[in-house]
Amino acid sequence: MALRKADRDLRLAEGLREMPSWLRALFGVDSVDRTLRHAIANLEQLVSPAGHHHEHPGHWAGDQEGAYALAVLVAVREHASPAAGPFRQYGLDAPPTENEIATRIIEGRETWWDLAYFSAFERKDTEAFVHLAETRTGRLVGNTLKARGTVIALTLGGLFFVPGTLLAFMRARSRGPRVNYTERWNPTYGLGVFLLAYLAYLGFATVFEQLAGHVARSGGDGPLFPMPVFIALDSLTRFLPALIALGLLFRKARHVRTRFGLGGPFDGKLVLGAFAMLQILDFGLRVAFDRFSTGDPTGGLSSAEEGPWGLVLGIVSACMAAPIAEEILYRGVLFRSLANRLPVGVAALLSAVVFALVHFVPGTTLLLIGVVGFMTAMTYAASRTLLTAIVLHALYNAAVKIPEWIIYQTPLF
């Protein structure tokens, strides 16, 4: 996955190099030089120089493809011939032959560094092979512009509702008298229920992660479980803790809908305004902090999300199950319990901090998750219905997950 991410990012940087830098940044594409440096930094986390022990858990012991890619990228960065890259430094006796690379291009399996390496030999048929590969890069660029352009268009449309959203957030600080027992939960009681449900989630997740490793399609044996079963298990793992919390908190099942606000109605204008604000904050945080963080070399990509069933997994898990289950726990239980005794802004901030920390992610992603948690809490407080927060969370996740699948998980041939 790290190799695929590096390849697609470099292709996009190359394919959009003539685009103005501000517009490139808007589409999440960096310059070729910065993308190259970032790719090298990420791959160096995984590939050790020959004769050196690497403590990183993702170390590619004996992975010749990773070593070959890194050697070519380093040569390009240093403006040397890719054919004379430091292959031995990374444990390779020799790089692939010209004919091997030509075969990759014909079969649609080439990478950005394959083209750089192949072009160094100045063969008579180089131009034809490069043109064939550039056609696939053009397809990737087109898909990226459409996918991320749709998110940009939705964000621009949501800007019209930002003033009303901000006004609703400010008014959320003061509400009428408490009318049902959900608004009498004290922080201690709510926190106890939240912790119990979260511990249950950790138990379920630990068991599920042991099974998830079998889903990766390595070799020809396929996954241990069919993908529909895997998707169902993933959803069950997410929903069970929320169901435990609801069972402890509510006297009657219908109260989940009527007094918890889970049945709606949701405020569409509030969702669009909050979504636009989230996208602007997301863009600002990435521009400000991404350069200081190497992050996950795979960019969070998973082999389980390859192919059509992978898209189904991403939509069901990240865009449906996670928003519902997480909003019930973090906003419906934790935030609401805190807001019953604390100012709404303080309760939203505290619940957002918890929401970010329990995801166990580094750097910019940690800040982004915290922002999502704060915005969904304020949306819940402003609309008085959990469904509004769920729709906002689902829309934000879909704006990340679906373009990501289109760009990184679909074949280019």
Q: Can you walk through the features of this model?
A:
The protein is an all-alpha fold. The chain has two domains: 2-123, no CATH class; 146-408, no CATH class. Helices cover 67% and strands 0% of the residues. The chain is built from 16 helices and no strands. Helix 9 (187-212) runs antiparallel to helix 10, helix 12 crosses helix 16 (386-408) and helix 13 (307-339) runs antiparallel to helix 16. The two termini are 18 Å apart.
Number of strands: 0
Structural class: mainly alpha
Radius of gyration from CA coordinates: 24 Å
Report the major sheet.
none
- Whole-Å distance between the termini? 18 Å
Which range best describes the helical content: under 10%, 10-25%, 25-40%, 40-55%, 55-70% or over 70%? Answer: 55-70%
User: What is the count of DSSP helices, taking H or I runs of 4+ residues?
Assistant: 16
**Whole-number tally of structural domains:** 2
> In sequence order, what are the helices and strands, one letter per element?
HHHHHHHHHHHHHHHH
Gross morphology? elongated
Strand proportion: under 5%
Rounded average pLDDT: 83
- Low-confidence runs: 53-62, 216-222
Domain CAAX prenyl protease 2/Lysostaphin resistance protein A-like: 309-398
InterPro entries: CAAX_protease, Rce1/LyrA-like_dom
Keywords: Membrane, Transmembrane, Transmembrane helix
Protein name: CAAX prenyl protease 2/Lysostaphin resistance protein A-like domain-containing protein
